[in-house]
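Dear Dr. H.,

I hope your travels went smoothly. While you were away I took the liberty of generating a structure for the chain from your last submission, since the lab meeting agenda had it listed for discussion. I wanted you to have the full record in hand beforehand rather than looking at slides cold. The sequence, exactly as received, is reproduced here:
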Amino acid sequence: MATKEEIMQWQDQYVLHTYNRDTLLVKGEGAYVWDADGNRYLDFTTGIGVCSLGHCYPRVTKAIQEQAAKLVHVSNLFINENQPALARQIALHSFGGKVFFANSGAEANEGQIKFARKWGSAHGGRYEIIAMDNSFHGRTLATLAATGRSKYRVGFAPDVEGFKFADFNNLDSIKALINDKTAAVLVEPVQGEGGVMPAKQEFMTGLRKLCDDAGILMMLDEVQCGMGRTGKPFAYSHYGIVPDSMSMAKALGNGIPLAAFEVRQEHGDVLTPGTHASTFGGTPLACAAGLAVFEAFDKDGVLENATEQGNYIMSSIANMRSRYPFIKEVRGLGCMIGVDLGDKIKEAVAACRKNNFLVLSAGETVLRLMPPLTMTRAVADEALALLDKSFASL
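The corresponding predicted structure, in token form, is as follows:
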């Protein structure tokens, strides 16, 4: 067994330095993780919204263990029994569409982009996609081009063409960009990296009508806000609309790489054999984990708990504003929570880390909390106490 010192040396010598990281985590359980020195942390990052049921959730762990002893991988030249079963669960918990499986959020969004272009090629040669300012859709060249934060694209020019940007929550700015080359509008119902910014009701309702009137697709990116994060299986359900397609990833496998995009049944024949594929998309192992996640939704009260505890945390932080005037706004849905701290954000993240409380930032000023959807009230209270302690030190 390698020592901590050896691991850290190998990290520096053999791993590309694309991340700033200095902590070696070796164990997780529920809302907590432990480092190589035995220190315990309360984890409100959940792997950036991936381990939404908490670390090593029993249902998921059991499903992975049993499937690993049975069949891990077959190519998509064959059917594996878990993939159609998981596609059915996604459809039953959303809008009853058809599903393509992938490995990551970027790959799922890349698939949506290809879907839109393939659809557009049959509808007058349309190929342009309108995305939102401050959006984030992935790190591939196409999903970078669709991301409304130019800093991520620095050094990777030229951009993939075919993307325009409108103001989030502003229908008029979208309408002004629609032309005879527009195939789709791509939106996150809750912008994650852009600052935990929920869409307004009138924006989502109006966007659905705008897309219908223009005869174009409404596509949603639910990579971060989907899979129960907002207290519903998918965030679009808060708005009473149905998209033409949506992507999902992160929490779909609760830690096992798994992603998908779903299209409405009427679009089920747009992508035909040979037009899109993935070697590792929807393996028996990954789909076994995904099935266990939906089983937890249906049997363990996860979504109800996410709403209850998320609302409790948001209201409790809002009550701290009288003591900490640098708290400018508290916003979010369910357990997707943003706290705008202005120029205090970097200090706040560092203070939380010093108190063994792992949190994220979003945008330039927002503290992002992505707790386990399964957390107890005691865990929520512990987090609030650590947040209070951290804020008091600023």
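Two observations you may find useful: Residues 59-299 form a domain with the Aspartate Aminotransferase; domain 2 fold (CATH 3.40.640.10). The chain has two domains: 4-57+301-392, 59-299.

With kind regards,
E. W.
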